[in-house]
Amino acid sequence: MIRVQEITKKYARNLAVDHISFEVQKGEIVGFLGPNGAGKTTTMRMLTCFLPPTSGTATVAGFDVLEQPLEVKKRIGYLPEMPPLYPEMGTAEYLSFVGKLKGLSGAELSKRIDYVCERCAIADVKKKLLGRLSKGYRQRVGLAQAIIHNPDVLILDEPTAGLDPKQINETRDLIRGLAGDHTIILSTHILPEVEQTCQQVIIINKGKLVATDTVQNLQSRARGAESVLVEVAGRNGKLDSASIQHRLEQVAGVSRVSLKESRDSRNIFEIESQKNFVRGDLARAVVESGWDLNELRSAAMSLEQIFLQLTREEAASEPEKLAAKGAQ
Amino acid sequence: MRNIWIICRKELRSYFVSPIAYLLLTMFAVIFGFFFWNSLGYFVIRTMEAQMSGQTFPVNLNEYIIRPLLSNVSVIGLFFIPMITMRLFAEEKRTGTIELLATSPVRDIEVIIGKWLAAVALYSCLLLFTALNFAFLFKYGNPDWKPLAIGYLGLLLQAGGLLAIGTFISTMTKNQIIAGAATFGVCLLLWVLEWVSGYETATWARVLSYFSVVTHFESFAKGVLDSKDAIFYLTVIFLGLFFTTRSMESLRWRS
Predict the structure, then answer these.
(1) How many separate domains does chain A show?
(2) A310 is a domain residue
(3) Greater confidence, B244 or A235?
(4) β-strand partners of A57
(5) Would an 8 Å CB–CB cutoff place B103 in contact with chain A?
(6) So what's the pLDDT on residue B106?
(7) Are residues A230 and A213 in the same domain?
(8) What residue numbers bound the domain in which A90 lies?
(9) Radius of gyration from C-alpha coordinates of chain A
(10) Reported ipTM
(11) What CATH number is given to the structural domain containing A243?
């Protein structure tokens, strides 16, 4: 349904989106995850033909965003971060205006207005001025506006931002309910939201694609991976943290060792490992090398940590690559 | 065509549900009413004086009332045009509704023409108030209607050009006040450019005064439809709207 290839957006000074590629199948709900300023909104704006990409291509329902923007726009419903409402218009009147803009008319238009009002639970504010609505209602009118022409693709930019917990739940239910008929991309920086509503996750950070995976895979990755904290102390007060780190890295199953804290004669390492049974090996490795093992505890990784880890890895791999180049 | 009409209607509606339209109409009606009352009073005194001294005063309403008043309207219009156009795009950019228009299956040019037509329509409403005053002349006198019609055509063409410029300026900022002030400055400049012709006859002065929107109105005020002047206004309209489309496009590439 949506195919994005090597899409890039360059502003005067910075690279907002850097060669991102992904695909979304029909009927899927995809979560677009990333910290603020990661390039989520820019990517969405390129998909909705609001911004042209600097390079790369994107097609929606088989139409290119640069070559046939009108065809793409007909098939897309878009809710920007700030719902695009005219405060001086009434709800029904606004929906009628948007419907006409999207090419609806007559009986079909009034049927769709009734339908979206019911679907988004805004029928009770049909006659009210948009400027007088509460934030939750404004968001729902924004959503109603996006689905008025029954588009194939829905693009929602932070649909739950600024809502209270009850409204957030209602909005998520609404989005899940829409999933059958529409392909949905929603952006967010809240992880549980992705876990609750999406099947597929696309994680971006600083304009770069960090990971695309299903929610299940990411979660099992969270369960399978383990993070262990090891505190090592030297017998005679002297401690060579580099050699400890080197030794720990050699333990089977360990994927990453980082020095977290170094205080006098004690070093705390954070170890990320694949399996659940490295702790015994770790303890043995420390003791056999003649150091003291002060503490060893495990912390299961949440999706949150995976997210942080993924975005951090991306940042860390850059200098490593440079160093590797320098070594050659 | 349908999209232009949708945008135009929405724009006209938002003029008339907010106080803007009523404020402009009231202000314009009062100011023009005052001008009309003044020139009528002056005309009556002149006629009486002429009768008393036994002169035959040529009673020509077109020459003595309509023509100067139409010229006045064209200048008063310069002050009203910024207030009509300043919100057109600046407001949409500020509230983010521009994203709705830009991601709907409508062309930029349809949005622009729709908004410009709404602005022209509001200006025509202002002109209706002048027609109300002129109606009294037709009731109690016998002016010629053809020069008046051509005068109105000229006013519409002139306003069309300035409104196009105002629309263009409104696409360049999020701030209505800036859009309004800049448009006002341009309107004022296009008016006073003509003044150089008062003391200078060199080519540069003729060129400058050619660019003044007011010089091109003189023939219309006289009731003469001069294609030269009509083409000048049409060119301004075309260029104004053309630059607006360019500006909209560059918005997409930059923002």
Answers:
(1) 2
(2) no
(3) B244
(4) A5
(5) yes
(6) 93
(7) no
(8) 2-220
(9) 25
(10) 0.88
(11) 3.30.70.1340
β-sheet bridge partners, residue A300: A226
Q: Are A17 and A39 in contact (CB under 8 A)?
A: yes
CATH number of A195's domain: 3.40.50.300
Considering the domain architecture, whether residues A16 and A56 belong to the same structural domain is answered as yes
Between positions 126 and 145 of A, the ones with CB within 8 A of B are 145
Instruction: Please judge whether B97 and A85 are an interchain contact, meaning their C-beta atoms are less than 8 angstroms apart.
Output: yes
Q: Is A290 left (phi over 0), alpha (psi -120 to 50) or beta?
A: left
Task: Give the pair of three-digit tokens for residue A138.
Answer: 């404004």
| pLDDT value for A92 | 93
Sign of the four-CA dihedral B33, B34, B35, B36: positive
Model-level pTM? 0.82
Same domain, A233 and A177: no
Same domain, A236 and A98: no
A113, A190: one domain:
yes
A-chain residues within 8 Å CB-CB of B6? 97, 100-101
Q: How many CB atoms lie within 10 A of CB B22?
A: 11
Residues A260-314: tens digit of each pLDDT = 777 777 788 877 776 666 778 888 888 888 888 888 876 655 556 666 666 665 5
Look at residue A268 and tell me if it is in a domain.
Answer: yes
Q: 3-state DSSP call for residue B8? A: helix
DSSP H helices in A61-132: 69-74, 91-101, 106-119
Say yes or no for a CB contact (<8 Å) between B103 and A50: yes
Domain that holds residue B120: 2-254
For chain B, the straight-line distance linking the first and the last C-alpha, in angstroms and rounded, comes to: 28
Mean pLDDT of chain A: 82
Interface test with B, best of A48, A55, A78, A100 (most B CBs within 10 A): A100
* Residue A99, pLDDT above cutoff 50: yes
Q: What's the CA gap between A100 and B200, in Å, rounded?
A: 55
Residue B105 sits at the chain A interface (C-beta within 8 Å): yes
